[in-house]
Write a structure and sequence with these properties.
The complex is a heterodimer of chains A (266) and B (259). Chain A is 42% helix and 21% strand. Chain A is an alpha/beta fold. Chain B is an alpha/beta fold and 259 residues long. The radius of gyration of chain B is 18 Å and the shape is globular. Classes of the chains: A alpha/beta (266), B alpha/beta (259).
């Protein structure tokens, strides 16, 4: 039996196929004009990877911003629940997840079954999300991927505000006007983002087994600075950290399938 | 004695050359490219505008967010000290001055002798800022000079649901694509900025009359929205309000230099 999970985020669409508790295909790409177009495309890609047809999927679950706009999804779950369960699937020792996406960041605490116990989320302010990193990389005149590389080369972060993306941009511009080194400015940016995330983690009781996921978790400098800011070492995950939402959705698809089989109702 | 006031804002350099309380020449220039080049060009342009030579300028004063970047300044003054000095020079009746720039709303109250008694500045959040207005007018293709007259034709100002400038920008772009008229969007943003200023006025217990300087002072729709919210008149000064802090800096420099 095969289960599919689709996660339509603000910037990236992801899909995962599960068979017998194993990931058999996964894919992510930038979102298209509509959630439906994104979902169609990522689903097509994972089916092609696994050499399957859509009829062979037992059940599909969707999550993310666009989760309600996908007609071929049989059910949907919130991003928070999916991130919790997906990350738990990837590493059973995880109890706290720091997820930094394109337009939001959240801290999710889960129990020993992968179910959400507590969470806190920032989706009101762009500071500390992938979006702010994107803006600041542009201001610094480097590619998003290079921002982290630059920051890793620095030992002396320059002060950058951590209040608002636009004010952070202003600080970066001032540092550039002063002729400061790009490496140290980049480091200042990653430290500032890390402080922002650390202040969010202060709002829940962190449980041991902390990991980081979402697109920003691929930025090694930000990850290093968050580890320093909150004083932990992150637990590694068995799968791509950007796929946790989709993976969780696939796990929920399987749960939903069993529920329907047992309960006999849809 | 001729003095220079150099106001380094978050978006523009403003320079004012002053003799005996009167403006001889000025320049306003957008900050892009190399900062020191822009500053040099702007200073040169202000000298040309005044028809004087550099050596005739006795003292230079810097103010604004980037005042620390002006290496050759004789004095560095706080923004509100400069805005207040300029307004009081032109209108001794003034009691509250709001310097409404791109990212900062600087507010101060004046005693009857022109001494700054109270001051306040907005939180570091770009929601409801001149900069945000600028970003949106840019994506609408509306030049700054036309913002006010276009906003004035709005009958149903559009109120943003996002409170973050970065997210609100995406919201506005999708609204524009859905056919919400630019005039409603601009009017909504201006009203939001006026409300932010009004909240600051209420918090500091500032007294009327209120005078607006800074770039937003050039937008009558903003002044009117603020006056409507406050329930009393908002005054404008008899010079380009965007130049007022630079003018005040030059006046302060003359005071300090003793003449």
């Amino acid at each position: 039996m095969i289960f599919a999970g689709i996660d339509i985020g603000s910037l990236t669409a992801k899909a995962v196929l599960l068979r017998h508790g194993k990931v058999i295909a996964s894919h992510f790409e930038p979102v298209k004009a509509t959630s439906l177009a994104s979902a169609d495309h990522v689903m097509g890609r994972v089916l092609a990877q696994a050499g399957l047809r859509i009829e062979e999927i037992s059940l599909t679950c969707s999550t993310g911003y666009g989760r309600l706009e996908i007609p071929f999804a049989d059910c949907n779950r919130s991003e928070v629940s999916c991130h919790g369960l997906g990350t738990f699937f990837s590493n059973k020792s995880v109890r706290t997840i720091i997820d930094i996406g394109g337009q939001d960041c959240k801290v999710v605490v889960i129990d020993s079954h992968g179910m959400v116990e507590d969470f806190v989320m920032n989706d009101k302010c762009a500071a500390g999300t992938g979006r702010s990193l994107e803006i600041l990389a542009r201001t610094l005149g480097v590619e998003l991927a290079d921002l982290g590389r630059f920051a890793l080369r620095s030992r002396r972060p320059l002060p950058v505000s951590n209040k608002c993306s636009i004010f952070m941009e202003l600080d970066v511009m001032q540092l550039l006007y002063q002729g400061k080194r790009r490496e140290n400015i980049a480091h200042g940016i990653t430290v500032s983002i890390a402080r922002r995330i650390a202040s969010l983690t202060g709002k829940v009781t962190l449980q041991k087994g902390i990991c980081i996921s979402g697109g920003v978790s691929k930025n090694a400098a930000v990850v290093r600075d968050i580890e320093q800011a909150i004083g932990v070492t992150f637990t590694p995950l068995a799968h791509d950290p950007q796929l946790m939402g989709a993976l969780g959705a696939a796990c929920f698809a399987e749960k939903e399938y069993r529920r329907r089989m047992e309960g006999g109702k849809s | 004695m001729i003095t220079a006031g150099i106001d380094i804002g978050t978006r523009f350099v403003k320079i004012c050359l002053v003799r005996e309380g009167r403006i001889l020449g000025s320049d306003i220039r957008e900050l892009n490219g190399t900062f020191q080049d822009v500053l040099r060009q702007s200073y040169r342009a202000a000298l040309d505008d005044a028809g004087i030579f550099g050596f005739q300028v006795r003292k230079k004063a810097a103010t604004g967010f980037g005042s620390n970047l002006v290496h050759r300044a004789d004095f560095v003054f706080d923004e509100e000290m400069c805005a207040a000095r300029a307004v009081w020079h032109l209108d001794p009746e003034a009691r509250t001055v709001i310097d409404a720039g791109s990212l900062f709303l600087n507010l101060c109250t004046l005693s009857s002798r022109g001494v700054v008694s109270d001051k306040a500045v907005n939180e570091k959040c770009a929601a409801g800022s001149g900069r945000f207005l600028d970003m949106i007018a840019g994506s609408l293709g509306i030049p700054v000079e036309e913002i006010s007259s276009i906003a004035a034709t709005s009958e149903t100002p559009y109120r943003m649901s996002n409170s973050c400038a970065v997210f609100a920008e995406s919201e506005v772009i999708s609204r524009i694509n859905m056919g919400v008229p630019g005039r409603d969007i601009l009017a909504g943003i201006l009203i939001a900025i006026a409300e932010k200023a009004q909240t600051m006025i209420a918090k500091t217990g500032a007294r009327p009359p209120v005078t607006v300087v800074g770039g937003l002072g050039n937008i009558p729709f903003f002044n009117e929205a603020l006056a409507r919210g406050l329930g009393y008149e908002v005054k404008v000064i008899s010079m380009d309000p965007q130049l007022a802090p630079a003018f005040g800096a030059a006046l302060n420099a003359a005071d300090r230099a003793g003449g």
